[in-house]
Design a protein that fits this description.
By secondary structure, the protein is of the alpha/beta class. It contains five helices and six strands; from the N terminus they run βαβαβαβββαα. It has a single domain, classed as Maf protein, CATH 3.90.950. Strand 1, helix 1 and strand 2 form a beta-alpha-beta unit. Helix 4 packs across helix 5. The longest helix has 17 residues.
Length: about 200
């Protein structure tokens, strides 16, 4: 499998996934290059949404497709924003504007609790075709805590407010290579690579 389509139009996710897949010898092409619109994500679980996105991209291109569904789960908010992470504060504005609104809403909600525990979660689904009956699934969880004051200019989404467990820097302060190594997305992709290697033997 040398070429796959990435079922996302999120530039942050695309950048991270392409960087992670390149050492594996896989050419990752954004679905936007095929003029594919993003699939609907109506489901209540990351897994169902990722599978829907992967099948949608594969059917449209005839290529294997990899989809990522991920988000931030905050203990004090009962797991929210969860699958609604991208649109926690609504769908208005550009992606950067939505990120700013989402973070502002999150900080306001967190002021009501002393519990700052949270984790990023990512599930990856790889389908070899649009009707693949045995999709490859892998996930990763990145535990940490939230800070009310943003720090750092890297990453995207909630990264300026997320401090990984055992560290002092926010995800937005980490070098891209370090974040890719330890993040929920990096962990999920490593698990996916192990699954693919096992299936090939």
């Amino acid at each position: 499998m040398k070429k796959i389509v990435i079922a996302s139009n999120n530039p942050g996710k695309l950048r991270e996934l392409q960087a992670l897949l390149k050492p594996m010898g896989i050419e990752a092409i954004a679905q936007a290059e095929f003029k594919i619109v993003e699939a609907e994500e109506p489901h209540d679980t990351f897994l169902e949404n990722a599978l829907a996105k992967a099948r949608h991209a594969s059917r449209a291109t005839g290529l294997p497709a990899l989809a990522d569904d991920s988000g931030l789960c905050v203990t004090a908010l009962g797991g929210e924003p969860g699958v609604h992470s991208a649109y926690f504060a609504g769908r208005q504005g550009s992606r950067a504007e939505r990120d700013a609104h989402n973070n502002a809403k999150l900080v306001e909600e967190l002021r009501k609790s002393d519990d700052r525990g949270a984790f990023y979660y990512c599930v990856l689904v790889l389908v070899r075709s649009g009707t693949d009956p045995t999709p490859v699934v892998a996930d990763g969880r990145w535990r940490g805590a939230m800070v009310l004051k943003p720090r750092g200019t890297g990453g995207f989404g909630y990264d300026p407010h997320f401090v990984p467990r055992g560290g002092s820097l926010t995800a937005a302060e980490l070098a891209a290579e370090e974040k890719n190594r330890v993040s929920h997305r990096g962990l999920a992709l490593m698990a996916l690579a192990r699954r693919l290697a096992a299936d090939a033997t």
